[in-house]
Amino acid sequence: MTLAAGLGLGALIGVLLGLLGGGGSILAVPALVYGMGLDMGQAIPVSLIVVGAASAVGAIPKIRAGQVQWRMAAMFAAAGIPATIAGSAVSRHLPESVLLIGFAVLMVVAGVRLLRDDGRTGTACAVRTGKVNWRRCIPRSLGAGLLVGVLTGLFGVGGGFLIIPALVVLLGVEMSTAIGTSLLIIVANSVAGTASHLTGVDVDWSSTAAFIAAAMVASLIAGQVGTKVDTARLQRWFAYLVFAVAAYVVVATVVGG
């Protein structure tokens, strides 16, 4: 992993994060594997560091604005952290080709979700007073947290493309609060996943730091520009890019295998 490659690819991922939110990180692992020559064992923890750092930066203004559902975030994290650790343990014992094909499938799911984002809001956890019906919310939150945690541990993704629709469509959380809550959940899962994956892995920390720094700076700049961009159109084109990269991952894995 060279310093120049770390800066360039980090900036690219940062732009996607700034324009699209957490969903942009779905390309971090392919960028690290195919753009920087890392194997999956190295790419997953580096991806999680980038995702966690970007989410922490993005969560700060949401916390200040009060746009976080702390109790729901805690439930997701309570289920997600052990699931992330378990997913990390499984990931270390799977062949790289299996992980790459699984990641490609996950990318297709993410792309479909981006194309089908119709702005629906659920009411499963809400009551008419505006308070949360925790009796109904707890099992749904724990189940969603488990799923996201396993995927975070297995593939090094933050899972924002699953957390946000779970919060909005399944649980009935307002979008602004769902984004802030999702960022906190991603930070917690990313920390757990990074700690699990770093054991016995040799990481080039100088290039990793360059990747993270470039991603953070580019994300902040793109976040400002993103307010003037047609988000719906950008999301569609990003979904097509995700499909293309997923196809490349499958072909490269099959041919290379």
Automatic annotation (TrEMBL):
Q: Report the GO terms under cellular component.
A: plasma membrane
Q: How does it sit in the membrane?
A: Multi-pass membrane protein
Q: Which residues cross the membrane?
A: 44-60, 72-91, 97-115, 144-173, 205-225, 237-256
**Record carries keyword Cell membrane:** yes
State the compartments where it is located. Answer: Cell membrane; Membrane
Q: Which UniProt keywords apply?
A: Cell membrane, Membrane, Transmembrane, Transmembrane helix
Q: Which Pfam families match?
A: TauE
Which family is annotated? Belongs to the 4-toluene sulfonate uptake permease (TSUP) (TC 2.A.102) family.
Instruction: State the name under which the record lists this protein.
Output: Probable membrane transporter protein
Organism, scientific name:
Mycolicibacterium litorale
